[in-house]
Each structure stands twice: as structure tokens, then as C-alpha cells.
Amino acid sequence: MVGLSDEELVHLVGLLRDRGETVATAESLTAGLVCAVLTAVPGASAVVRGGMVVYATDLKARLAGVDPELLAERGAVDRDVAAQLAAGARDRCGASWGLGLTGVAGPDGQDGVAPGTVHIGIAGPNGTSVRTVTLGGNRQAVRAGAVRVALRALSDVVFTTTDRGD
After folding, report:
1. Across the strands, what pairs with 127?
2. Is residue 53's pLDDT more than 90?
3. Cβ proximity of 160 and 12 under 8 Å
4. How many CB atoms lie within 10 A of CB 32?
5. Average pLDDT, integer, range 17-37
6. CA 82 vs CA 2, 11, 16, 45, 67: distances in Å
7. Is 0.90 topped by the overall pTM?
8. Looking at residues 93-100, what average pLDDT do you find?
9. Cβ contacts of residue 63 below 8 Å, gap of 6+?
10. Distance (Å, rounded) from C-alpha 44 to C-alpha 24?
């Protein structure tokens, strides 16, 4: 599996299942790859609520609830957009955890943002955080790296969260 070892990914899904927690995604540059990796784990149907592929900028607002003014002012590749994607996935899919990914896979930049820039939002019971990374390589390498970072980030937050706040 991408991002975490098979064992770590199974452990993550198992922990979420045991806690009665769920996850949903709103993905731009990864176009559903994070959700696909999560659902490769047997029993993931008890944990994964769903995912939105919001590749087009207008769909980020329409489907995931990202503020259209934010998109107009800063563009689709922005830390706050990732945070709102994560919150939108969580809220609109009725999940405990939301993951939002936006970035530039390349080879060209977008809206003045360099290729390899990736923002990953995680919305959970105790709030929302964003990780920003710069990844190297071609389109496929950036997208695969974004999946790895997103799953690692989710795992880190889930395993350190003991107060679910629900």
C-alpha cells in the first residue's frame, strides 16, 4: 500500500473502526487516490464514508463547500483551501475525520505556485490542521508522495488523539 506499510494501514483502519470513527476525503491533485488506498484494506467499509474528487476549481466550492471568495483571491492551491476541503469532506460526508488535498503535480506551476507544492488538510473532532510539503519528481511521483504524506498525517493525528470530542 502507498504511504503506510500494509500493516500500519490495516492498524489505522482497525483503530478507526474500533473507536467507531470514520473518514472522508476531498481530493484535487490526487483525484481519489487516497480514498482508493484506504478502501483497499478489508473492512474499510466500516470506516470510509466516501470521497469527493474536486479537480475543477468550481467543484471545490460547489461540492466541498470551499469559500468561492477564497478561491478567487488565492487560487485553488492554498493552505486555507486544503483546510476547507478537509472540513467540507468531514461535514458533507458525516465523517469523524476529513482529509483535503490540493497542490500542483506539474510539470507546470499553477496560479504562481511551483510544481510539487502540496497542502493537506485534516479536520477532526479537535479542529483542523494543515501540512504543506514540497515534493520532487514527475506528476506521478508528486501525486504518490501526496498520498503517502496524507496517510501518514492522518495516522499521526488519529494515533495521538485520545479525546474524540464527540
Report:
1. 124
2. yes
3. no
4. 14
5. 97
6. 21, 26, 22, 25, 11
7. yes
8. 98
9. 26, 52, 54, 88, 92
10. 12
